[in-house]
Design a protein that fits this description.
By secondary structure, the protein is mainly α. The chain has a single domain, classed as Up-down Bundle (Ferritin). The protein contains 7 helices and no strands. It binds fe (ii) ion (2 copies).
């Protein structure tokens, strides 16, 4: 069974930055959940005849929207004003590594999604330990478990449709790219800064 092990661990610097600016991280997180739902939907648009995607992604998109609703409730509870926030360069930089031709594009898209979910799993788990508010800590621990299921789902979708050695090789490459992107802390506090 292929496992997904991130090529780097999140630094103490990120934990410090995120907990000091939890309002910005929560605002960014609300956007991340919307994007996660949107990405699942765009895969459905791009591959309308792919039975496995059609079967598994609608419930995933619904779950991500429920996450968004719950993050939004925490923003309201904590009195954090909603404002537009620029995204971290993280996802954009990862997406630059998607190969354009098929079926490679599908493989890369599934693997990048798996990696983003795995990093979210790691970081939300850290917020589950370090967030300043006890209700938030509980919420993040619950959420981290969901994001763990999501990276497994995307990895399984890749393994069902591509040979294992091809998945492994590409996964290793993209994991290195991801670790490199996060190797210096983005100055703006974000989930993926
Ligand atoms: Fe989520
Ligand atoms: Fe997710």
């Amino acid at each position: 069974m292929l496992a997904l092990e991130l090529a780097s661990r999140t630094s103490e610097d990120w934990i410090e930055q995120a907990t000091r600016h939890i309002d910005l991280v929560l605002l960014d997180h609300a956007n991340c959940e919307k994007k996660a739902a949107g990405n699942a939907l765009s895969l459905l648009f791009r591959y309308p005849a792919n039975g496995r995607l059609v079967e598994t992604l609608p419930p995933l998109a619904r779950e991500e929207l429920q996450h968004f609703e719950r993050v939004h409730r925490h923003l309201q509870r904590l009195g954090i004003p909603i404002k537009p926030l620029s995204a971290a360069p993280y996802a954009g930089r990862l997406n630059q590594h998607l190969r354009r031709s098929e079926p490679e594009h599908l493989l890369d898209t599934l693997l990048v999604a798996a990696i983003i979910e795995a990093r979210s799993h790691e970081r939300l788990g850290l917020l589950g330990i370090h967030a300043p508010d006890p209700e938030l800590r509980q919420f993040y621990l619950w959420l981290a478990a969901a994001e763990e299921r999501h990276w497994q789902l995307y990895l399984d979708l890749a393994l069902e449709q591509f040979p294992a050695d091809q998945v492994q090789e590409r996964l290793d490459t993209l994991l290195q790219v991801e670790a490199e992107i996060l190797s210096s802390l983005h100055p703006e506090p974000r989930v993926h800064s």
